[in-house]
Design a protein that fits this description.
single chain; Rossmann fold; binds NADP nicotinamide-adenine-dinucleotide phosphate
Length: 249
């Protein structure tokens, strides 16, 4: 995508300090968008943000008041054309028998409620701009796998949040897309009970692959709406072959 394809647009990326979010914020800025990038580790986003003109914010997406306040501040000052939410987490103790009410609530509040807070707070600005929401869900929200019931429930919820917002808001010109990546080589994999071996990581999607999908969505004409986009690593996953237990040959 040529530089300048997002010029004049304001993008908010929450979960922009690492992996998919960092790549997306960077790609959007390189495409000419004014990018507001947020995460708890603001200092990490700041490395390299300055020369790209990325505005950085410290934000815990599970803090409803903080999400609302920041979203309104950005919306009032710059408007919001694109809201991308890659913020997400998983923890090693993910088997059903290991889950506690506290762990469940933590997962849902970060991976699902946080997305709701941000999209809801951004709605007036998205209606004004006839804007786009991109929720980074996962194939784990679509089919059973070993990522754990709390993570799977949160990601399935995110898909349906995207669909329902798209259903209600399409006549206002607001699009809400769910992106469902398969395995992506990012630090979140380090939290697996058994992190994948190098050959699996090497064959996995890269953060920039998913960022490119986000840029594709963001540069479609406003009359074209993609409710859901699935992207999986060719040699590892396929519809009907969802596990990556076997390294590629
Ligand atoms: N990697 C995969 O295989 C894969 C596959 C499918 C879907 N996904 C999804 O893709 C998204 C991005 O993950 P990633 O793979 O890029 O992992 P990552 O490198 O670990 O990045 C996760 C990002 O989420 C942010 N985050 C976590 N908790 C947050 C909170 N409470 N408030 C604000 N930001 C928070 C982190 O920032 P701070 O820690 O600085 O707050 C970080 O920027 C996640 O939703 C993940 O579930 C990943």
């Amino acid at each position: 995508m040529e530089n300048g394809s997002l010029s004049g647009k304001t993008a908010v990326v929450i979960g922009a300090s690492s992996g998919i979010g960092l790549s997306t914020a960077t790609l959007f800025a390189d495409a000419g968008a004014k990018v507001h990038a947020a995460a708890r580790r603001r200092e990490v986003i700041e490395e390299g943000a300055g020369e790209r003109g990325i505005f950085t914010h410290a934000l815990d997406i599970s803090d409803a008041d903080a999400v609302w306040k920041l979203t309104e501040e950005i919306g009032e000052s710059d408007g919001i054309d694109i809201l991308a939410i890659p913020a997400g987490m998983n923890f090693p103790e993910r088997r059903f028998e290991q889950l506690t009410a506290e762990k469940w609530d933590q997962m849902i509040s970060v991976n699902l409620s946080g997305a709701f807070y941000a999209v809801r707070a951004a709605l007036p600005y998205l209606r004004s701009s006839r804007g786009l929401v991109i929720l980074i869900s996962s194939v784990s929200g679509r089919w059973p796998d070993a990522s754990g019931p709390a993570y799977q429930a949160s990601k399935a919820g995110m898909i349906e949040l995207a669909h329902a917002v798209g259903f209600e808001e399409h006549t206002n010109g607001v699009r809400c897309s769910a992106v469902l990546p398969g395995i992506v080589d990012t630090p979140i994999l380090d939290n697996r009970p058994e992190p994948p071996p190098k050959e699996v990581r090497d064959a996995s999607l890269k953060p920039d692959d998913v960022a490119q999908a986000c840029l594709f969505l963001a540069t479609l004409p406003p009359h074209a709406y993609v409710p859901e986009l699935t992207m999986i690593p060719t040699q590892l996953q396929a519809l009907g072959k969802t596990s990556v237990a076997t390294p590629p040959t």
